[in-house]
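> example.struct
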């Protein structure tokens, strides 16, 4: 069978499986294995390096080992599986693509928080929000929970859905795995704290680089998806004005677009490990978020998900057939 058709159908099935079942808790997930390897490499690095320069060098080597090794292993295993039998290759490629997508699991977590809020179970909603954000959730009221959940939904819509689809469209499963491995490195090592600012320096920078285009694509898709409720203009205005209001060079792009489309306000005071931190306001003229906005946010997310998937399938076909270079 034609390899392009098989790979496209693998991406399609992976997308559907991710949407339907998300990330089952006991499912053998390569990202969990990757996390254990990163933890092991971190221990080795800290045993042999103490200085800032040494830790930065070790961090660079960890990025090369994890990202490079993941891409090489994915390419060789998928190619070997296809050489053995086209069905084995197709199944393995589907499995890998399924594991790099996180849109379904994100949707499920956010939906759960919305249900708990609507049922008046505030403490359970706080617990659910704590799975999505790093800030303290114990004191959050209904509006604070709604805001935190929506901010996480749209920031992670780029990391967990649009970016993997984008890289899969450009270079198949190996390139999608490259992004996922770097994103995992950033989530484990890329902190600004004293303990990680050196070791995680290259992990954070690589994630910023790889997320640069997907975050902006996500913002554009959010503005486009807002057209169905006549909110594209407002989303675009807020995006242009507030896209830089975040410590990350990428995170504010989808957040600003979504805040504008939904008409809500993001940012403001948050607590991290007991310390109050004032975040820049995104769409400061918007209203405070509420439980109903979580439902509206999920509708917006679903639209972006479908558009991103269709676009990824078209781009993948054009890239693999070479027709993209004939335009």
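> example.seq
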């Amino acid at each position: 069978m034609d390899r392009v058709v098989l790979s496209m159908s693998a991406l399609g099935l992976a997308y559907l499986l991710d949407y339907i079942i998300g990330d089952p808790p006991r499912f053998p997930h390569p990202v969990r294995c990757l996390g254990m390897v990163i933890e092991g490499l971190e221990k080795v690095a800290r045993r042999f390096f103490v200085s800032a320069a040494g830790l930065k060098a070790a961090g660079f080597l960890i990025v090369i080992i994890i990202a490079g090794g993941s891409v090489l292993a994915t390419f060789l295993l998928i190619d070997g599986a296809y050489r053995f039998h086209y069905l084995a290759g197709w199944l393995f490629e589907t499995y890998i693509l399924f594991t790099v997508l996180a849109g379904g699991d994100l949707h499920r977590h956010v939906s759960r928080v919305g249900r708990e809020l609507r049922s008046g179970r505030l403490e359970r909603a706080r617990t659910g929000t704590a799975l999505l954000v790093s800030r303290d959730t114990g004191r959050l009221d209904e509006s604070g929970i709604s805001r935190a959940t929506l901010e996480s939904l749209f920031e992670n819509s780029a990391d967990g859905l649009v970016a993997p689809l984008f890289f899969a469209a450009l270079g198949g499963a190996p390139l999608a795995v490259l992004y996922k491995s770097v994103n995992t490195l950033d989530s484990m090592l890329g902190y600004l704290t004293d303990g990680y600012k050196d070791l995680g320096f290259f992990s954070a920078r690589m994630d910023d680089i790889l997320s640069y285009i997907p975050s902006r694509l996500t913002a554009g898709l959010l503005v486009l998806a807002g057209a169905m409720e006549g909110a594209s203009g407002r989303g675009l205005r807020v995006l242009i004005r507030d896209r830089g209001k975040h410590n990350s060079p990428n995170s504010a792009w989808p957040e600003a677009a979504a805040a504008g489309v939904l008409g809500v306000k993001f940012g403001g005071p948050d607590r991290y490990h007991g310390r109050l931190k004032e975040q820049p306001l995104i769409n400061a003229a918007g209203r405070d978020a509420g439980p109903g906005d979580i439902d509206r946010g999920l509708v917006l997310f679903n639209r972006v998900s479908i558009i991103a998937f269709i676009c990824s399938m078209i781009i993948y076909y054009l890239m693999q057939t070479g027709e993209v270079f004939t335009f």
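> remarks
The chain has a mean pLDDT of 92.
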